[in-house]
Amino acid sequence: MLPWLNSDRFPLYLAPMAGVTDVTFRGLCKDLGADVVVTEFVSAEGILQRDDRTRHYTDFEDGQRPLGVQLFGADGVRMGEAARKIIDWKQPDFIDINFGCPVNKVVSKNGGSSLLKNCPMLAEVAREVAKAVPIPVTAKMRIGWDAQSINAVEVAKILEDCGIQAITVHGRTRAQGYTGQADWEVIGQVADAVKIPVIGNGDIASGMDVEVRRAQTNVRGIMIGRAAMANPWVFQEAKQYLETGVHATPATVEQRFAFMRKHCELAIARSNRGGEFEIVRSMRSRLMGYTRSIPGGKFLRGRFGQIGSLMELDDILAEYQRQSHRFHSRPEPDEDVPA
Ligand SMILES: Cc1cc2nc3c(=O)[nH]c(=O)nc-3n(C[C@H](O)[C@H](O)[C@H](O)COP(=O)(O)O)c2cc1C
């Protein structure tokens, strides 16, 4: 049912990231080697209320397949209805249920990772959604609510019994947020405990990371999130490393600049929510993210903090190139860049 997880394949997924993995970024990562992509999470209630903005989050192009739409909610029947509605609009390859979101707004309504504390409700959500739709349903979860209640193996078995066809495990608890390190030992335990494919997620940033985690565990694929925000080439770099054992040459400054421009241009062309200024302004933190491994990145981040047009982007990049002799050959520490 999920052909990209068949025996000899080992897909690299682009992680769902709210505010990041929109239709434009998904397409760009697909071009750079991401095998499977997932939309950012959308509220089942938003879908049922035919909220245009929510619907916009589920938008995708056929070239992005295989693609999953990720739903969150606390009522399995309503989520099943929302999933059917999405399928009526445009049939994704799978529906993914979010059991990992740590943010209070979601958790306080019993959505996301809060369901890890309530296994009967989690089972009900999974069962109802799986029953409601004719396409595969997968789930993404954290390893537990906090360090005292790590229950990923138990939850994974429940999900398998409820008809979920693959599970992505982010190796952190809800309490950790994005701090500390992902616990790949627990991810490995989950992969050993269920028959359905498990995709491992957390702190993967290179082909070597993929290789190590693949060797250590029985995961059937890897999902990459934050590393792709800074370095969307990570997918093709990882594939090259896995195939040849040779580390890929990192994208050059010129390639990064061309990518930044392309990302802004596509975002402007696709936007139905504002003109060039609004879109470029909304891209500021994304542009800053792309400077993480560039010498003189700090200079660029300072400029990107004010940017509002493509012309300014060109001017900043030209200024950077004129002044490139000033910059060290190594990137500076980048604590000022939002993760
Ligand atoms: C900005 C941001 C937004 C995220 N939004 C979602 C989301 O909508 N759904 C989800 O399941 N996980 C979301 N996540 C979690 C990621 O999918 C992923 O599990 C996490 O970043 C760990 O993987 P990484 O170490 O490769 O980044 C988000 C993470 C970030 C940084």
Written description of the protein model:
This is tRNA-dihydrouridine synthase. Belongs to the dus family. The chain is of the alpha/beta class and 339 residues long. The protein folds into 2 domains: 242 residues, Aldolase class I (TIM Barrel), CATH 3.20.20; 74 residues, no CATH class. The chain is 44% helix and 13% strand. The protein is built from 16 helices and 9 strands. Strands 1-2-4-5-6-7-8-9 form an 8-stranded parallel β-barrel, surrounded by 6 helices. Helix 9 links the parallel strand 8 and strand 9. Helix 4 packs parallel to helix 6 and helix 15 packs antiparallel against helix 16. It is globular, with a radius of gyration of 20 Å. The C terminus is likely disordered. The structure holds flavin mononucleotide. The site of flavin mononucleotide has 22 residues, from helix 10.
Itemize the secondary structure elements and their pairings.
Layout: E1 12-14, H1 23-31, E2 36-38, E3 42-43, H2 44-48, H3 52-57, E4 67-72, H4 76-89, E5 94-99, H5 104-107, H6 119-132, E6 137-144, H7 152-161, E7 167-173, H8 184-193, E8 198-201, H9 207-216, E9 221-224, H10 226-230, H11 234-244, H12 253-270, H13 276-282, H14 284-289, H15 297-304, H16 310-322
Parallel strand pairs: 1-2, 1-9, 2-4, 3-4, 4-5, 5-6, 6-7, 7-8, 8-9
Helix pairs in contact: 4-6, 7-8, 9-11, 12-16, 15-16
